[in-house]
Amino acid sequence: MSRYRGPRLRILRRLGDLPGLTRKQSKKIAPAGEHGQQLRKPSEYALRLEEKQKLRYNYGISEKQLLKNIKLAKKVQGSTGIVLLQMLEMRLDNTLFRLGFAPTIPAARQLINHKHILVNNKTVSICSYECKPADIISIKNKNSSQNIIKKYMEYPSLVNLPNHLEFDKDKLTAKINGIVEREYVGIQLNELLVVEYYSRK
Predict the structure, then answer these.
(1) What's the pLDDT tens digit per position in 119-138?
(2) DSSP 165
(3) Would you place residue 21 in the very low, low, confident or very high pLDDT band (cuts 50, 70, 90)?
């Protein structure tokens, strides 16, 4: 199955806070499942798997997509883990979420699929489109499109706008100024463990 469609709070209880997956907060503290109460020291493999799952669920990508991104990141000069995070952060669905156009990444994906979003004045319906510096993101000049975005923007999910994004609230347009830096990545995880997980495959 390419995308997770099950209970999201169960994933939050197991993996911790994932802002891209859902805005809901679980009242329960223990991990989900019959064995969630048992506290035992996780193995090294379990730790790496958990970090990889955080990436997958937060950005809403399949195992195949994540593996493809890892292979691309290895070819680029620099730290593979940071390059991977930058690639995922620069996806169009995540960029809309970081701008506050949508409360979660799945909601941002729906906006793109329904062709509400323009990149450089052209309709883009591919969620995995990689935003580049100097790209201009705007909304279709339709009342329905703008009303949806304005409704979402009344309740922003993330307070801080990353330094690589520039947003004009009046015109509802955004500009990509550069590549995201590691400190502005919206999820807390150890990307080195993800790279180690795939290096053994």
Answers:
(1) 998 998 898 899 998 889 98
(2) E
(3) confident
Instruction: State the Cα–Cα distance between residues 110 and 123, nearest whole angstrom.
Output: 14
CB 117 within 8 A of CB 124: yes
Of 153, 152, 122, 149, give the one whose Cα is nearest residue 135. Answer: 122
The model scores a pTM over 0.90? no
134: phi then psi, degrees, rounded to nearest 5: 85, 0
Angle (CA) 51 186 123, round 5°: 110
Looking at the domain covering 8-85+188-199, what would its CATH class be?
mainly alpha
Domain boundaries, the chain: 8-85+188-199, 91-178
Q: How many CB atoms lie within 10 A of CB 92?
A: 23
Enter the CATH code of domain 91-178.
Answer: 3.10.290.10
Q: Which amino acid is at 40?
A: R
Residue with tokens 């199955």: 1
User: What span, in angstroms and rounded, lies between the C-alpha atoms of 54 and 15?
Assistant: 6
